[in-house]
TrEMBL record:
Protein name as catalogued: Methionine-gamma-lyase
Keyword Magnesium on entry: no
Record PTM N6-(pyridoxal phosphate)lysine, positions in chain: K204
Family recorded in the similarity comment: Belongs to the trans-sulfuration enzymes family.
TM segment ranges: none
GO biological process: transsulfuration
Organism annotation: Winogradskyella epiphytica
GO molecular function, one term: carbon-sulfur lyase activity
Cofactor: pyridoxal 5'-phosphate
PANTHER family: CYSTATHIONINE GAMMA-LYASE, TRANS-SULFURATION ENZYME FAMILY MEMBER
Domain of life: Bacteria
The keyword Lyase is assigned to this record: yes
GO cellular component: cytoplasm
Amino acid sequence: MAFKPANNIQDLQYFGEFGGVNPSISDSSTYTFLSAKTMFDTFEGNADGCYLYSRHSSPSNLYLGEALAAMEGTETATVTASGMGAITPVLLQLCGAGEHVVSSRTIYGGTYAFLKNFAPRLGIDTTFVDITKLDVVEAAITPQTKVLYCESVSNPLLEVADIKSLADLAKKHNLKLVVDNTFSPLSISPIKLGADVVVHSLTKFINGSSDTVGGVVCGSQELIDDLRNVNSGAAMLLGSTMDSLRSASVLKNLRTLHIRMMQHSNNATYLAERFEKDGLKTVYPGLASHPSHELFKSMMNEKYGFGGMMTLDVGSLDKANALMELMQERNLGYLAVSLGFYKTLFSAPGSSTSSEIPEDEQKEMGLSDGLIRFSIGLDADIERTYDMMKSCMKELNII
Ligand SMILES: *Cc1c(COP(=O)(O)O)cnc(C)c1O
C-alpha cells in the first residue's frame, strides 16, 4: 500500500491537559520526582515516560518529534534548535576520529562547511562525490566509511538522489544512509526507499512561516536514544535543544504542510513550464527536461508534486542581481535566503548560500554566476505573478 505521510500526521490525537484541542505547552526546564529512586532510574535511562530536564526531552518536543516521525515513517525522532543542530549531532554520533563520510558534493553550504572544514579537526574526513554517479559513490567508500550522506533534492542545483540504489550501497558496505529531506517533505519519503536516518531543517517548508529555525532527526529508537544519552549523546551533550514554546508553534504549522506543499508545487510547476517555454534555462524536477525527472517520479508521493524550488539562469550575476531587485520592488517576492515561505524568496546561491563552496568547485558542479534560486510562494494568482515576473525580465532584456 502507498505510504501516506499526511494521513500519519493527521491520525495522531493530542489533547491538552484540560481537554484543549492543542496539547499543553510544557513550560518547564526541570521536573519533580515523587521518589528519589525514580530520579536515579531516569538518569540511567530506565524510567519511560518520566521527564528529567528539558535539554534531554520535554512533552512539547516529544509531541512534535512523534508527529515528524509519523510523517517520515521512523520509530521516533528528536527535534533540535536548528537544522544544523540536527545534522552535526547525527554525523558526530555515527562517526568518530579516524572514520570517514562519503557525501554528495551538492549539499547545503553549512553542512558542506562542517564536513569540509570542521569535522577534520575531530579526525573525521569526508570524500565529496557526484551523488548521481553510483559507481563514483561506491569507489569512494573505504573500510573507515560509516556514513553515506545526501539531500533527496539538492541545494541549490536540484539534483535528485537515487535513494533506493544508495540504500543498497549502504547496506552492502554496512554504512548508515543519512538523507536531508528539507527540500521535499511529504513528496519524498526516504525511509520508505531504504534510508536509515532522515534529517530536516524545520526552518523551511515544515514550519513555513520564516519565524524560527528548527531541526529534526528521524530514525530508529536506538539512534535517537543514543543521541539523547546523558553520558554520550551528541544531541544531549552539544545542547542544540529546541525550546518548548517553539516546538508547540511548529507543530501547529505542521498541520497545514500538506496543503502548502501542494500549492508550492502547483505554483512552481506553472512558472517552470512557462519560463522554459520562454527560452530561459530552467531547472525544476517536474520538467521532463530535468535529468532526474523520471527518478523523482519513481520515488515521489505523487499528490505533493515536485516541490517549490526552481532555478533560472539569467546569464550573469549582474542580470541576476538586477532582476531580483526589480522583482522585490514590484513585491513579487523577497531577496532573501531560506525557503518555504508564503512569499516567493530568491537569491543568487553562488554569492550567498553556497559561497562556502570555492569558486572553482562551484563551476565544476554547474553552479553558474547567473543562477537564481527561487522558493516559490503560495500566491493565489500565479498567472498574474508570471505576467509580472515576465515583464521584469523583458525590461532587463533577459527574455
Ligand atoms: C537550511 C538548510 C539546512 C540548515 O538548517 P538551519 O535550520 O538553517 O540550521 C540544512 N539543509 C538544508 C537542505 C537546508 O536548506
